[in-house]
Amino acid sequence: MARTQDVVELILQDHRSMEDLFHRMRSVEADRAGALKEFAQLLVAHAEAEEAEVYPALKRYRDIDDEEVEHGEHEHDEGNEALLALMEVEEVGSEEWDEKLEELVQAINHHTDEEERTILNGARENVAMRRREELGAAFLEERARQLKADCGSLDNVRRLVAKS
User: Fold this and answer.
1) What crossing angle do the helices spanning 7-26 and 129-148 adopt, rounded to 10°?
2) Which residues lie below 8 Å from residue 107, measured CB to CB, with a gap of 6+?
3) pTM of the model
4) Is the dihedral of CA 140, 41, 154, 71 positive or negative?
């Protein structure tokens, strides 16, 4: 991955990593449980860092739609709910697991598509590169803090869902 501090590019890199993890979770030849654990860590750290560092800053720009930013936060909650439903399935690879995985894939793909078309394009057009790099540094710092705290653990995902 490119060594960038641009928050838009960093978010896009995470989105592509999530897509790769979806492929691993779907593959019967892969460590599906391991891919889910990795995905849970990435998803929660990514969303928490966006909500803590990126979304509040972007709301200050008049050409970036506040409603889209707030909608993105709501979609993070939906993603966490779908993630929890998959994490609580007992048998990896069962029919129920596959169904919950597809629900998660749909929720996350819907969110990333909308975010890329609205919020991130708005940031590209309206936020100076220097500010995007400052936001990128803050995003990476918060994301690392979340990962260190085991943010994708079942207990933490349950806590996030309960508070939403």
Assistant:
1) 40
2) 75, 78, 79, 81, 82
3) 0.93
4) positive
Name the H helices within the chain: 7-26, 32-49, 55-58, 66-87, 95-115, 121-126, 129-148, 154-163
pLDDT in tens, 102-139: 999 999 999 999 999 988 998 999 999 999 999 999 99
The span from the CA of 10 to the CA of 136, in Å, is 7
With 0-12 / 13-18 / 19 or more C-beta atoms within 10 angstroms meaning exposed / middle / buried, residue 95 is exposed
Single out the residue of 52, 45, 26 nearest to residue 105, CA to CA.
26
- Distance between CA 86 and CA 36 in Å, rounded? 9
Asked if 85 and 103 count as a contact pair (C-beta separation under 8 A), the reply is yes
